[in-house]
Amino acid sequence: xxxxxxxxxxxxxxxxxxxxxxxxxxxxxxxxxxxxxxxxxxxxxxxxxxxxxxxxxxxxxxxxxxxxxxxxxxxxxxxxxxxxxxxxxxxxxxxxxxxxxxxxxxxxxxxxxxxxxxxxxxxxxxxxxxxxxxxxxxxxxxxxxxxxxxxxxxxxxxxxxxxxxxxx
Length: 168
Prior knowledge:
Order of helices and strands: HEHEHEEEHEH
CATH class of the domain at 76-146: Alpha Beta
Oligomer: single chain
Strand content: 5-15%
Strand order of the largest sheet: 1-3-5
Number of helices: 5
Helix content: 25-40%
Structural class: alpha/beta
């Protein structure tokens, strides 16, 4: 026999009626409505202010927000030991090849080589930045470094006006 929608009902004891407070002594929640006798907790809005006592310490523990996050995308760092491990001797290393090997994230425009580990292979690095010691280590291993051309920063209108007023 199939069950119809009008025959469905919740299980026994699943739904209980809410207790109606302040409706006479016979209800069990009359007179003071379950709030006890006098005092702050018996008053309306009396419970809300008490939460702040323990909250003060919690607020003091949270560090203040300071400074700002730069919108500039910084170059991803790559070590000499990573280059030594992932590339063969005489290979030309570019940003595209580093992204293909998943050594740098795909959204980063360039990478910077840092002097961590040892480089034993002669690699040609094209379009990558490098720290001075890393550049020395690359050249000592027999490799070459062709750094990426640095973009010129456009001067703002205020800087141009200031330059014109100072030259007169």
